[in-house]
Amino acid sequence: MPEIKPDQVYTPKEVRDFLKISESTLKRFLKKEIIKAYKIGRQYRIWGSEILRLVSPEVYQVYKKVKEKTKNTIERW
Length: 77
What we know:
The structure is a single chain. By secondary structure, the protein is an alpha+beta fold. It has one domain. The protein has four helices and three strands. A three-stranded antiparallel beta sheet has the order 1-3-2. Helix 3 crosses helix 4. It is elongated.
């Protein structure tokens, strides 16, 4: 399975493949805002961070803290 990158944008098909869910399940997730998506024209796009949040909230929270700490450190330089 390829790595899910938080800052990359994915198509619904890629998300379904990552999560191993059906099209109807993904539509239900989008409708109930379990996964947040952005509509571009007539197509949805989903950030990798949304996939990670759904799959592993604990890991994603750690990632966000490390990213923020690094950003703050760089800004202080």
